[in-house]
Specification:
Oligomer: single chain
Distance between the termini: 83 Å
Helix content: 40-55%
Structural class: alpha/beta
Largest sheet: 5 strands, mixed
Number of strands: 15
Strand order of the largest sheet: 11-13-12-14-15
Length: 559
């Protein structure tokens, strides 16, 4: 015997070891390594897929990884959209607040109308380009994050790359025994997976299922294994002086005992570096940097969730019990003007049912926003809705894991039907809506009266009044508005309703312009198109229909 016989699990991996396992072993992707593809830049993702394809038949994932991928795909895919929509709403609310302040000030000092218009245009010129550019950048970053599986490029690429490389599911009895063993290890703090104890159900055994299926596959191939994972918890890695040195000794020893070969582990950035050196595949330094950035960001999120997970279930139950048992306040009452603002979990009730849950850093601001939204809808009014606000900390407001757990448990109707959507964006506004979508159940009411519309003298003033005072989104791009803002309108015909204003405004627009009243918003643009979901379509530049040169206004009726 040599000094290393029986102690192979203590050996550090050498460059030769990595070369051997990359060329002759099985390379296994953990769930987080796959889900993080949604967070990579397009260029980095493309190069990582090139590396994975270069592994050919040596690439493999356990069936448990596929299970966890499908369980968490939508959440990972929607991360960028979630945070982007939050920022858009904050920017838009800031702009609306500044406009309200300007108008209030102008009334107090009797400012001339043209001076006020100049200030508002200056405000728009500062805000709108920033918002448009952000939406452009955020849209390019979130491209492919769609929940539609048939148009998700990450998923489509994974299907091709992993074709024939996904392990089979365990049989019923084998799976039952593996879950039992995984839960035993969790209780006795035997790696891997004991750091997932807080999950509290069979998901706590998930890491062990990945491990057991990895051992089974390596044994069938009689080869070494390289596990690529972004997980940095202590139940996987051996750390010395705070630095990762390799797999836990228990894991290395168990693998060698079961397979007769060694197991190695790498995080994605180091894997890309070695693949470039050993497999001679082009990988840019920027791609490795991006992988490191994503890993660090994901690690921060996981650490935050892990820290909260010990009390997550209890806190979730306490908050839900508070919401369900608390005294409900009318959304249409004085509490809207809460002077002492505070962060809270807010539950909305409609017809005695809990229909929406959301965290809010500013309770009064969110309640005002919901009041404004419901005040401009058909089939519902703010007086039909009540709320309970459970005070929380700022840290809890930002804890998406806590919110996800409550939504999974309660499944409030409005959390999944579009009520919380702030800005659908130009590309999504015309798409079909589900029958239970909030905008179809409660479409915007264009018959409502907005007294500030009466004084408008031209298209620009009418549009600004609509956008500022109608309680729903009225959109026209800054560039388009600049072309038609000075077009005079027949102000004598204005009666203060949104529909009346839209008709008069649109009649003053050139031919080729269209106003489309969607279930949830109004779009004014130089584009003619039929939209089946529209409540109303109005077209500018009307000429006598009989001579065939005009484009008639069309009414599709109430939804």
């Amino acid at each position: 015997m040599s000094l290393t016989d029986g102690f192979e699990h203590h050996l550090s991996a050498s460059p030769e070891d990595y070369e051997r396992v990359l060329k002759d072993g099985v390379v296994i992707l953990d769930t987080n390594a796959i889900l993080n593809l949604y967070r990579y830049t397009t260029e980095a993702r493309k190069e990582l897929f090139e590396v994975l394809r270069g592994l050919d038949e040596r690439l493999w994932i356990p069936h448990q990884v596929a299970t966890e991928f499908w369980r968490n795909r939508e959440s990972a895919a929607s991360d960028l959209d979630y945070f982007g929509n939050e920022l858009i709403e904050e920017l838009q609310e800031t702009r609306r607040q500044m406009e309200r302040s300007l108008r209030t000030w102008s009334n107090r000092v009797a400012l001339q109308r043209d001076h006020l218009q100049t200030l508002l245009e200056s405000l728009d010129s500062a805000f709108q380009p920033t918002l448009d550019k952000f939406q452009e950048i955020a849209g390019s970053r979130s491209e492919g994050k769609s929940r539609n599986t048939f148009e998700d490029p990450v998923l489509l690429e994974l299907q091709t790359t992993l074709a024939g490389k996904v392990g089979e599911a365990m049989g019923e009895e084998e799976h039952k025994q593996a879950v039992s063993e995984g839960l035993r290890r969790v209780e006795e703090k035997i790696p891997p997976g004991y750091k997932d104890k807080s999950k509290g159900d069979q998901q706590a055994a998930g890491d062990y299922l990945v491990w057991a299926q990895t051992i089974k596959e390596a044994r069938s191939r009689n080869c070494e294994a390289l596990l690529i994972t972004g997980d940095v918890k202590e139940d996987w890695w051996r750390k010395e002086s705070g630095e990762i040195r390799g797999p836990r000794l228990e894991l290395s020893k168990e693998f060698y005992s079961e397979v007769g070969c060694r197991v190695y582990m790498l995080r994605p950035p180091r894997f890309l570096e070695l693949a470039r050196e050993i497999l001679n595949i082009s990988v840019a330094n920027e791609t490795i940097d991006d992988a490191s950035r994503v890993e660090l960001s994901s690690y921060d999120i996981r650490e935050r969730i892990d820290t909260a997970s010990a009390v997550l279930a209890s806190l979730r139950d306490d908050l839900l019990n508070y919401i369900k048992g608390g005294s409900r306040l009318p959304l249409d009452g004085d509490p809207i003007g809460l002077a002492n603002d505070f962060p809270a979990l807010i539950g909305l009730f409609h017809e005695d049912s809990l229909v929406y849950l959301a965290f809010a850093s500013s309770t009064s601001r969110v309640l005002r926003r919901w009041h404004r939204k419901l005040s401009g809808r058909k089939n519902i009014t703010p007086s039909d809705v009540s709320f309970v606000a459970a005070p929380v900390t700022e840290e809890q407001v930002n804890d998406r894991a806590l919110m996800h757990g409550m939504l999974t448990e309660e499944q409030p109707e409005w959390n999944s039907n579009g009520f919380g959507n702030h800005d659908p964006g130009r590309l999504r506004v015309y798409r079909g809506l589900r029958e239970d979508h909030f905008d179809l159940l409660y479409p915007i009411d264009i018959s409502m009266k907005v007294s500030r519309l009466i004084g408008a003298r031209n298209v620009g003033e009418a549009f600004e009044s609509l956008r500022g005072y109608a309680p729903y989104r009225v959109h026209m791009s800054l560039r388009d508005l600049s072309e038609v803002a000075d077009q005079e309108i027949d102000s004598g015909e204005l009666n203060g309703t949104v529909e009346n204003c839209l008709r008069i405004l649109t009649e003053s627009l050139p031919q080729g312009w269209q106003t489309t009243v969607m279930p949830g918003s109004i779009i004014i643009e130089p584009l003619l198109k039929d939209v089946p979901n529209a409540q109303l379509i109005l077209r500018g530049g009307l000429i006598n229909e009989a001579d065939g040169t005009g484009s008639p206004n069309k009414f599709f009726g109430d939804l």
